[in-house]
Predict the structure.
Amino acid sequence: MRPLTDPIAAELADLAPQLLHGYFDALPRARVTVATRLAEALWREDIGDARVRFRGERHGFDRVLLDPVDVDPVTLVTHEGLRAELDSAVHGLALAYARRASMDPGHRAAAAVAGAPDMLALLDGSAPDERTARLEQLAVEGHNLHPCGRTRLGWSTGDLIAHDLESESTAIGFLAVPPELALGDDLSERLGVAAPGGRRLLPVHIWQLRHLTGRHPDLFADGTLRVLDEVLPARPTAALRTVLPPGSTYLKLSLDIQVTSTRRSISIASTRNGPALSTVLGQLLELVPGGGRVLLMTEPAGVAGLLEDGRQLSTIVRDGLGGRLAAGEQPVPASSLAALDPVSGRTLLSGLVDRYAVARALAGPRTAAAGFLREYAGLLLPPVLALAARHGIGLEAHLQNCVPTFLDGVPHRLGLRDLAGLRVHHPRLAASGARLQLWPGSVIGTEDDTVLLSKVAYTAFQAHLGELVLRLGQSHGLAADEAWPIVREVVDESLRGHPDHAFYTAATVPHKALTRMRLAGAGDLYVPVQNPLHGL
């Protein structure tokens, strides 16, 4: 037995000893993964001597793939806060690797019995939101551009096992509070749970409930915060604070832990803006090219508990995909496209492109990949670019917020979720005739064109399509100089004659500098990166 000096291992020995050897075996891989992602971020954002110290393969938008960096990632930075986050990411990722290694043989055995060639086929017939959550579990490493994708500051080992992405289930508790402590919609009827005695109902992530019990014992002792007996099981999603109870309605719940660089509580503004944005976006999507192919996962209701700063007991209701898909229409969360399929050993994206090749009767992997990219970009970009250009709505269309659907591998429709991070350009929206009242002081509002367009450029092009281009090159041999002209054609068709076209096709475009932001402790920071759409 190896010494239990590791911050997770000692607890793991008591709680899940069957994972201990797998955890230790995964630690070196986790260290290299986090260190390499950190070094790539330092290189991309031109921090310190990264561009001298590290060498690798350069891709679009200054994405660089470095040779494995075999060091402890905390040695690459001096910022104490970031060092703690990196350490958490390493140990959390090692545990996630160990848990996946224990789960994947079951998937392979089930696939063998069912005669399914991959996970996509194995999950055929599953409810769409259950299927989406199951596929999200495959994206073990988290955010594709952030070195701290598995940071979980505030959670113990027991919490990781009980509530993290690989967990089969977590739970939702409920509080009954005086009416003056709740701001927003009454969720009792939606959730089938009643608050007694004229009180208001607040759903709470079960971890958050225990966290607040310890933080405010006096409010629980005097009955101000009254815990109800009802407990609702729910499946964790990749967002962790967003959970899926039985059915097809998600709940986004405050979760006061740090994931990546951000504590995952929810502002009052987000609970109130969600319903208003859902209404306006639903109307505007009917007016823009490609909008009819968007499945907006609306946020019809929200409520905030007015405790502390109002972020600790907030809930946003989000509609799912249940009852909205055609026969054979398969949702695949974009965040899992680059994940390895435990059944086939290839990426989910590879499996989809192979299906696409059969459906479109295309010969040759590069031809199939090029056709797939053209149709995928043609699904994603027209409504996203048009909403910004015509109405001043800059969607945050990165991998984590998009759930494309496919018919036999052919991109069909686009599920869009999570409205809290988009940008609203007030002058453009007003000029379009649309009316939207945001909560006072909402950070999503702007009058700056660059703020609006940077949001779209970073999320849709860099974080989203950049990942697909990279993976299609690896799996199907589609070279970047073949792939980016395909994307450029879609941009040209979508924005012909519009001033936004020049921004998206300039020699450099702003890149959201996630590591610089963490080091500075400031809001959004951008650095210029070379643009593969320029000059095509």
Observations:
- Residues 80-114 form the longest helix (35 residues).
